[in-house]
Design brief:
The chain is α+β, with helices and mostly antiparallel strands. It has three helices and five strands. Strand 1 and strand 2 form a beta hairpin.
């Protein structure tokens, strides 16, 4: 499994977490990540409205020759974006595991304020322990 990057967006489209897992990636500025999060949030909202299937959740997968992006949206509107190598299998399983780690180590943290940037060392450690050995 090769995961390139993980982004977490709050329900308003704000970037609350970003982490790269591959040193070979081109580094973006923090402003670029904020623009990426806001742009994706807008595209996701538009695609959910224009979908011919009622109740569609919007854009879920974007594939290119260089990467694959998978979006997992929770019932509360939080979005988990995972960027991986193309043709990476079981990204939906990885998304759900990242969400479980988020629920266990961020949402159960009494010092975390909902919708604010995630600064939780235990979440970082457990996420790295899950992603890095599989690289």
């Amino acid at each position: 499994m090769v995961i390139l990057s993980i982004l977490i967006l709050n329900k308003a489209g704000g970037l609350i977490y970003q982490r790269d897992f591959n040193e070979g990636l081109n580094k973006l500025s923090s402003n670029d990540y904020l623009v990426l999060a806001g742009t994706f949030h807008g595209v996701h909202a538009i695609t959910s409205r224009i979908s011919p299937v009622p109740g569609s959740g919007g854009l879920e997968v974007l594939e290119s020759e260089q990467f694959r992006m998978q979006c997992f949206q929770t019932l509360t509107g939080t979005k988990f974006l995972i960027f991986a190598e193309p043709h990476q299998p079981n990204i939906d399983v990885i998304c759900r595991r990242v969400y479980e780690l988020y629920a266990d180590f961020v949402m159960k943290n009494p010092f975390y304020q909902i919708e604010m940037p995630i600064r939780c060392e235990s979440f970082d450690r457990h996420l790295a322990a899950y992603i890095k050995p599989k690289q």
